[in-house]
Amino acid sequence: MKSITGGRTIVINTQYDSDGTELPIYTAVRNDQSRSLSQEFQIISPADRRLDWIGGLYFYRESAHDLTTTGGPYAYGPFYLMDSSGNYLYSGVTSQYLSLDIPFDDLGVFNSTNISKSYAAYGQVRFKFTPKLQGTAGLRYTEERRTFSGDAGTTFIGEGAAGVFTFDPALACRQLIAANPVTSPAGTTTDQAQSTCLANVTADESAYSATALEQRSAQTLSFSNLSWRFVLDYHLTPDTHVYASVATGFKSGGFNSYDTDAAYSGTKPGQPGVPVISYQPPFGPEKLISYETGIKGAAFDRKLLYSFDYWYYNWSNIQAQLYNYVTASSDVTNDAKAKAQGPEADLQALPWSGGEIDFNGDYVDAYYTHFGSTFSDVVSGATNVDFTGAALLGTPRWKWNLWIQQTASLGGGGDITPRIEYQHRSS
Question: Residue 425: which of 390, 397, 404 has the closest Cα?
């Protein structure tokens, strides 16, 4: 019987300079704390029998807390100017309605707690049909629970002349009216236009300055899954065997974070609305089935070790993270499927005393077979872009490593091993 216990505590404090300039305009401070504990018990049969087995129980718990504060100015607008009679100020000289962008300070506090628990029971048996042929079968049942609670708040406050934009309403109104002489409503004087502009700025700052708060009480998601694995091994020689396997995999779902949107008030055309914070729907589990066949062996008195295999993966309900450039939000969905396949090779040679040459490489053909969402390409301007058939993101087609090393004795004072390594990854 074997017991395996693990624990980990992580504390991360990070400050981001999100505006990308040398000025302290927009910053974000993030404090993350995570504590986890795992416990596993295994019962293992005696080895070197025709039938051997292993069984086990597994438990995992993680508590993670995130506190993020953000702050910085933004220029919102356009805010269109309207007189007391409800008429918009219009300039026939420039053929446009008069409008201003007004800077606001955006202050946000986002606080969340995630608790994850996982329980699993598993077993695996291996049976030797003949001295050369053996089969392996395994099952694992998993239950996972994820609990999320938190609150998110954001406040918009008119920045004023003391802020980064040094916004002076009187000066901004004078410059706007000078560049766009008011011709409608007819008979509007420059002083009347100036007075209307200042009244609008005061009203807009008051109307748009608002606080949005979204509180989410503790919610729990539960997932369960039965995974399995089958393997056949056949020994061609004592040092060489071929194999074939099929297995399933599972990754539980979880909670999305929050989005900050604007609810348009509709009081003026194009005017921003008060901020609204909304939590996006949770996402479900991702599943995988994999197939693999290969050969592993040794040659030349075990001075050459080799492994060649070919594998095939089929994913469903991929947890794809989608970023919306319009709302600056990032959410995880389950509307993607994918397939991947390719060969792999590993070689280790010991051609001379103390010398070693290693090589491993693979070719991957990975692509989406379904992508439920379409996108707009911010670079090309194309709309309704469908990723079905596109290469799986972050997966290079070719990848290989080669290294050579030589171990030499220092004459009773240890060893030295110089090493030369070359790595290649394609796009």
Answer: 397
pLDDT given at position 357:
97
**Segment holding 201, helix H or strand E:** helix 190-208
| DSSP SS3 for 21 | coil
Map residue 285 onto helix, strand or coil: coil
Distance CA(181)–CA(186), nearest Å, equals: 11
Neighbours of 83 (CB within 10 A): 18
For residue 263, what are the CA distances in angstroms to 5, 17, 94, 214? Answer: 50, 28, 31, 14
Counted residue by residue, the chain has a size of: 427
Contact 392, 366 (CB under 8 A): yes
Q: Give the model's pLDDT for residue 326.
A: 54
Enumerate the β-bridge partners of residue 216: 150
Strand partners, 419: 405
Low-confidence stretches of the chain (pLDDT < 50) are 262-271
What single string gives the DSSP state of each residue in 211-248? EEEEEEEEEEEEEEEEEEEEEEEEEEETTEEEEEEEEE
Q: At 153, phi and psi to the nearest 5?
A: -140, 145
The residues near 1 (Cβ < 8 Å, ≥ 6 apart) are: 41, 42, 43, 44
DSSP 182: -
Both tokens of residue 310? 């070919």
Residue with token string 């409800």: 86
Best CA proximity match to 129, nearest among 204, 242, 24, 50: 50
Sign of the C-alpha dihedral, residues 373, 377, 378, 383?
negative
Count of CB atoms within 10 A of residue 95's CB? 9
Of residues 360, 354, 357, the one with CA closest to residue 403: 357
| Confidence at residue 269, expressed as pLDDT on a 0 to 100 scale | 45
Output the pLDDT for position 4: 97
Q: The tokens of 292 are what?
A: 């693999």
User: How many helices and strands in the chain, by DSSP H and E?
Assistant: 2, 22
Alpha carbons 385 and 16: distance in angstroms, whole number: 32
